[in-house]
User: What shape does this take?
Amino acid sequence: MRIKNLAVIKLVIIAIFFVVVSCEKKPEDVLESKSASEHPSLILSKQGVKDIRANLGNIPIFDKTLAVTQSEVDAEIKKGFDVPVPKDYSGGYTHQVHKKNFLMLQKAGVLFQILQDEKYAIYVRDMLMEYAKLYPTLPLHPQTRSYARGKLFWQCLNDSNWLVYTSQAYDCIYNYLKPEERATLENDLFRPFANFISEGNPQFFNRVHNHSTWGNVAVGMIALVMDDDDLLEKALNGLKTDNLQEGLKDNDGGFIKKKGQKVGFLANVDEPFSPDGYYTEGPYYQRYAMYPFLIFAQALNNVKPELKIFEHKNGVLLKAVNTLLNLSDANGDFFPINDGQKGMSYYSRELVTAVDIAYYFGGQNPELLSIAKKQNKVVLDDTGLAIAKGIRDGRAVPFVKKSIEFGDGPNGEQGGIGILRSNDLELVYKYTSQGLSHGHYDKLSFSLYNNGEEVIQDYGLARFVNIEQKGGGNYLKENKTWAKETIAHNTIVQNETSHFNHKYEIASKNYSVKYLFDSSNSELQIASAKELNAYHGTELHRTMVMINDKEFENPFVLDIMKVNSDKKNQYDLPYYYMGQIMKVNFKYKVPSTLKPLGKENGYQHLWKEGYGKSAFENAKLSWLNNGNFYTLTTTVEEKDDLIFARIGANDPDFNLRRDPSFIIRRNNTQNTVFASVIETHGSYSPVSEFAVNATSAISKVKIIYNNDSYTAVSIENINGKTKIFIISNNDASKESKHNLNINNMEYQWVGPYNYTNIN
Amino acid sequence: MRIKNLAVIKLVIIAIFFVVVSCEKKPEDVLESKSASEHPSLILSKQGVKDIRANLGNIPIFDKTLAVTQSEVDAEIKKGFDVPVPKDYSGGYTHQVHKKNFLMLQKAGVLFQILQDEKYAIYVRDMLMEYAKLYPTLPLHPQTRSYARGKLFWQCLNDSNWLVYTSQAYDCIYNYLKPEERATLENDLFRPFANFISEGNPQFFNRVHNHSTWGNVAVGMIALVMDDDDLLEKALNGLKTDNLQEGLKDNDGGFIKKKGQKVGFLANVDEPFSPDGYYTEGPYYQRYAMYPFLIFAQALNNVKPELKIFEHKNGVLLKAVNTLLNLSDANGDFFPINDGQKGMSYYSRELVTAVDIAYYFGGQNPELLSIAKKQNKVVLDDTGLAIAKGIRDGRAVPFVKKSIEFGDGPNGEQGGIGILRSNDLELVYKYTSQGLSHGHYDKLSFSLYNNGEEVIQDYGLARFVNIEQKGGGNYLKENKTWAKETIAHNTIVQNETSHFNHKYEIASKNYSVKYLFDSSNSELQIASAKELNAYHGTELHRTMVMINDKEFENPFVLDIMKVNSDKKNQYDLPYYYMGQIMKVNFKYKVPSTLKPLGKENGYQHLWKEGYGKSAFENAKLSWLNNGNFYTLTTTVEEKDDLIFARIGANDPDFNLRRDPSFIIRRNNTQNTVFASVIETHGSYSPVSEFAVNATSAISKVKIIYNNDSYTAVSIENINGKTKIFIISNNDASKESKHNLNINNMEYQWVGPYNYTNIN
Assistant: This one.
């Protein structure tokens, strides 16, 4: 290489001088150099960094998280980074590398601030500069499956993930960078990036959907760092015009544009969250969405405190954290309603962020400290510092999950979900709206847990998220043909067809109706709801009661499903019990060859393992699971078919679990009631080999009264004591007085139900 | 009632005086009154009691156990006791009460000694007196199922349990009792009781069987308390004459009398225990038998130290404890070979006793302290005191389970069991003898564990021990029709018939032959054995290798099953993998209706869920279980049928678990080799949703050489590196030199096998 003239030599000398000078700067000096707008300010703050540094070594859980993060990032710095030309879907190399990169950028940025070691800033700067070189050269991502293809990734969703994290990294090294470096990054990378996922993809950006939330937040985060109010406005309230047609759908079958739909971040808070903080897609997706919602709220609160984002919609964002924690079982696993993968829990990284933010901005609730303590890590910022100090100072108190109801829908008036809890027993009763494209067709379904063990399961989804061998880690076809179908759930199926005939367009316009929820009496808690639209001409009314009666060893569940129709139908009521059958009280046959239970609507996936009829008024099924005994006692009629089924038919790729079900099939019936009691009783230890209290304590369950106004069920125990439960079917008022004669006995009570001794 | 004369009045007054005096004695005085032979001496000793009392309050784990025991016994004393006329089988009231009584008697006796509170002695005395009143009136137990009916219980076995525990109670209050009370108890209860279960039931007492062990020990324990050497002689060496016919069987199908059979306690130590301390029935029954063996050994050692019982057969009794601990997985659960119920573990009460005794009498091995620490309770005697002190003083070190082989048979020459361990992987390879009446027909079978999770399972038994609803808690008929059959295990089935044609008489005369066991090289551990008699005219030779090769993420298993026969057969080799299928590499069909795989020999219990053939040399099956991925890569021939099966056909009572199996079926073949590699790789977390290393690292497994002398298998990994493993089939000498040409490559090595790079 030949040097052409003196001017160039001068330039080189000046450049070398600057590099030398910047290398010689001590870390402290780096942070002293102030710019016009303060940085960091997005998530970390200058004051926050000072506080953190002052406490280091004295905040165990924070120190531990920091050490783990440092060793992880140091290892990556040592390895060096790659910024490859995008090529692959989720499982592939370029996808994984770009994903790792944004996670590392964010962490390195934080480490630069906290440890004030320049190597982290250099790592962030150098990698961002590579991205700034690559990005302008990129066409659309070569993989075509998405309705909104990205550039770094196959979908704009992942591009948005990238920007949410990278904005934080940029903020952390903002002041470290020279103005011309900032100019390069903003002009070649961040602005075109933000424009692409917004103006360039209105079908992605201008929606109410978790995808759009990520898009809005990505644009909003970089807007705050760059102090760009126009961009921020787009993030908060969406694009003014988008030229999208109403009724357009994405590749998951969800609607893109609905009439009169507001868009942008604020609309994404307003609509899918109910006032109770329930996110309409269910807890699995609420968990996924919580990160962008809360991280952006934290940034807005830091940079634009005048927006009072944490007070928006009565503080729904912080309330939602509490809601989500209450939607988990005793192990912290989220209830897998709708498309939820089992095992996802409050130990996820999203919930670490959520809990830390909720603690810091939500009044430092000491119950959250006990969750953070179990999580055993914190966010490396002001919120994590506060949590770490709280735990260190022994301020944690147990997070007590109580019985609670959450309304669904923007105004909380589109049904809801009721959780009844008593001792170790947790009942999840679902009477929500459809839950967007991730909803299942399971109106009035329920699931039951005993100390975190599934007693009556909700199947969850048919997908192995991110496991490439199983359909690329995406939704499997059995998610539609099995997991979403009604028969896959613990609720009524009429004539072997799913609710709303499995039509999303219809289902998404309807929701169940809350009838009654009362957990104020710990001896009898009740949740009751109606569904009027799942089957045209049929009304379903299910009442679930958790009774804590000293006559019984444990609380038990009374389940009353009342069906009224304008014609005769076949009704199937399945119970997806988990465990090994111990005993049944009726005669049945097991076939010598197994055939599917039906041809379609999910029935094609069930093997018919056995079938029988009961000569008694009750069918009883007892089973054992993980050291506990359970018994279902259900009222049956002579013509009922009692079916033992097992999942797994027509499953050529072994995508489904071989779990069992017990189905009560009532044929050729117009109006009817199914009444069942589910007990948990006794225990078995394979170590002591003692079986304690292994049999049911209930001798009879009987429907002793049923008309439009009232339904009454009697429950007799093996000691001959009988209780009756009466519900008023059309008057849930707490004040109403009732008077009813059943079998020559007079019952008088006030309020929607009555539970009393009969002898 | 009229008083007849003065003499009677005098007697009454004297009696009252004695009662008052004895009531007024202070507890200390009670123990000071010495009798000729010292008591307690059986399990507790006078010195031991002093030591325990001196340490109370300062030995946490002992103090805790004591407190629990005290509160339990106090509650029983408060309730009062019942000594009902015997009537029921195991599930019923009288059985349960008599069982509780002997447990309480033993505990109360110990509490009397340690706490020196007279109420415990009174409780024991009064209850024993009730038994002394009842016993002489008792006919045989009314239930007739047993080959040796008891009096208190339906079988002599349970009567013996009663006496083993009660003898200890009697010893503890011996000195507290008046001579006439002792006379009553001995004459009316203990002597006739001991005579009944010995002379009265030679078919029970004069055997080598765990039943007889209990009988021998019961008689021996009471003999030691009563200082009766004649009785002790019967216990140790059996009855001199028994008039039993050879070939007689019990109701479980086990032999009662074999030709030249020695009997009594010492014979029961000599025969079922191998010199390595392996008990031929397997660990589940070894655990059951350990209590009488060890408690009597402790008593003998205390009272008759000159017998040096702990040195008998080179100290096999103490060695057996170590053996049993090594026969457990990472969670402490015993490997469920033969009739073993899953979940039984070293947390059982029998193992608490065993570990405490082994520690105290076996050289205070500090590794046992770590087991006792996990058990979190101790025996309330000298042995428990020693353990508690060791733990308190921080002397516990981890119990490290290593790879180990245990010979089976009285001389250790009837096959054996090999355990190979590397990191989290544990392989259990069974080439034992039949294992008496609790043995399964599964020569050369194996099971595999990863950190305590089953990877390739052994089914265990078909029984729900003590769960009354399931066949009275006894063996279910499926134990014979399924669990014992060969196809229920991971080994070769020829022509769909079980080993030895499921004939106990033949099976019990045969055993597999150890060929090679070497765990000295942690990079390659090997266990190899042959079975020559399971099928007439067919020789099986299976070699299992655990290879820890840095080219692979984790250690993996190489499984070579070589079959030579004098005719063509069908061979089935099942793998009972646990988990959900991720991927297979061959084409298969799933049937639209499920049929059983066969008609008999266990096949009638398998549903045929899928079947295919491989166009490649290897069939691959990958599955996921509890967050780990596994892959089986197995050599197949074009004609092989690859079968997906599931347990559960012809199971009218839902007694069987619906677990899956993958079966390689080789048709119409005379001599052949099955070579397979089982990998554990990667991980999946439903919380992070990261799937790491989810696919197999092996691209090809190939049998590259096979004749009578050598079998060689090559293993190629996905990076193109190939290793070969050669085993010499008929020369296991470590010194032999071998020289072999395979595909124009020369291999030279010393010893029975060679593992080397091929490129």
